[in-house]
Amino acid sequence: MRRIVLATLAAAALGLSVNAANAVEGVTVPEQDWSFDGAFGTFDRASLQRGYQVYQQVCAACHGLSLVAYRDLEAIGFTEDQVKAIAAQAIVTDGPNDEGEMFEREGIPADRFVSPFPNEQAARVANGGALPPDLSLIAQARAGGADYLYALLVGYVEPPADMELPAGMYYNTAFPGHQIAMPPPLSEGVVAYDDGTTATVEQMAHDVSTFMTWTAEPKLEERKRTGVKTILFLIVLTGLLYATKRKVWQHVH
Known about the structure:
Strand content: under 5%
Number of domains: 3
Number of strands: 4
CATH architecture of the largest domain: Orthogonal Bundle
CATH topology of the largest domain: Cytochrome Bc1 Complex, Chain D, domain 2
Mean pLDDT: 89
Radius of gyration: 23 Å
Order of helices and strands: HHHEEHHHEEHH
Shape: globular
Largest sheet: 2 strands, antiparallel
Helix content: 40-55%
Oligomer: single chain
CATH superfamily of the largest domain: Cytochrome c-like domain
């Protein structure tokens, strides 16, 4: 419930502003083909696991997933042992202990993803004053969702000849205003996929956008199944009500 409320607030606060900026700047975000589109769409587990790998090896250095627990990764196809191993790689600050002091320990599946920075100020200092957004709900907090994330990740190009970018800024075709402080995060072969898939920029952008869609809406498949069942129930109920009406009024002219 908390995730849904946060997603709604984020979409209201950020999505509308992005829509307005897109309209002003004339930014277009092409639609991509996603396995989870449509009433019967589902997540591609292989793509989700590759997307997690891209997040962990590229994005996690700056961006957190504060609303996602390590045990949630079982839902995308990782085994319990794999999740335990992933969580154990994290160093979690816990406590206080019996002496009233905080201490560090290995992560466990119940822990949420550890932030790359201890606090917001540390994050700003490490990134030239910019605060890298948490990615837990980013696919719902940005207009266009996965399409926008994909377009942003593949949209780094050289600026037009008549445009001079400020120091520390990069040109991106999908970002409102086209000036973005985040350096291009993806490059050919920056990730070596465990399943042998060729890690092109387009492939990595597609996979991590799929993963970000799942983190923002992990119950998407369940919601769609519930919707289909509800529609089927209503169809059957409508038929029964119609048959009952015909039976009750069959002798009335």
